[in-house]
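In response to reviewer comment 3 from the previous cycle, which asked for concrete evidence that the modeling workflow produces usable outputs, we include below a single protein chain processed end to end. The sequence was submitted unchanged, and the resulting structure tokens are shown without manual editing.
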Amino acid sequence: MAGVLVAGSINFDMVMKAPRVPEPGENIHGHGFSMVAGGKGANQAVASARLGKSAYLRACTGADAFGDFLVEALDEAGVDSSLVIRSKEVATGVAFIVVEEATGVNTIVVDPGANMAMRVADLDALEPLYKECDVALFQLEIPLDVVGEGARRARKHGLATILDAGPPRGAELELARLFDVVSPNLKELEALTGRAITGIDSAVGAARELTGAGIKTVVVKMGVEGALLVEGRRASHLAAFAVDAVDSTGAGDAFTAALAVSLSEGRELEAAVSFANAAGAAAVTVLGAQPSMPSRSDVERILAGGGAE
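The workflow returned the following structure tokens.
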């Protein structure tokens, strides 16, 4: 069974719940502090493994206790962690996350640390794995030249390439064109196109700008409004699954990983997006990034109308 190759970030997340997101200069009481594994690349590798695929992650942590914690979390999730670089010069990336308890909406501040120490030459270690995988998955939390060259190499070896277009970080269409599927959320779609998104119609228009620029398929993550699939002039809106949201951290990563897994298994695009919608819905029912990455049974339960457990 062909696997999913992920090149991306890995972070140590510190998460706290609060009644609401504080205003500038405001000090409010929170609760439920936890330390969990995160980073978009690592989250997507873990989700791919939990959804039943062999998952390989090329990432970089510091040679520190946080890095030890993150590598152990990958091993426990069934991700091949042998490709994780341990830098002695730069500390592990960290994220501070505040979750609004009533809605599950979060705010995140990230110090990327060792994630930005990745170099194009670090992609050389992936050469033996291209024949083992059929999908390569990237995000924008590592240097953009690494993302671009990684996509070129994966395409050269016949892998489908998927870009989770977050965080935007000034990425331009030239980079996005290197991918078969580009999957932004609404804010990222605005950043890529320069268009204001005010609803589904404007999201369709912005996504069509991307397909018109040479990107074959655009899948827009729209949170509680579901997802939008655009190919050329064809556009389909798929509604979200109704669940009780606890924390939206990592939901987009669960979505993109499930999209990659589903496409690698040969599903048609609409079915793949529906599968991804269910994975994102499952993720918001659990606090934290990697702890919320769903299993195959979690996703299938939601698809069958049983909701999340």
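The CA atoms of residues 30 and 159 lie 45 Å apart. We consider this sufficient to address the reviewer's concern, and the full set will be provided in the supplementary archive.
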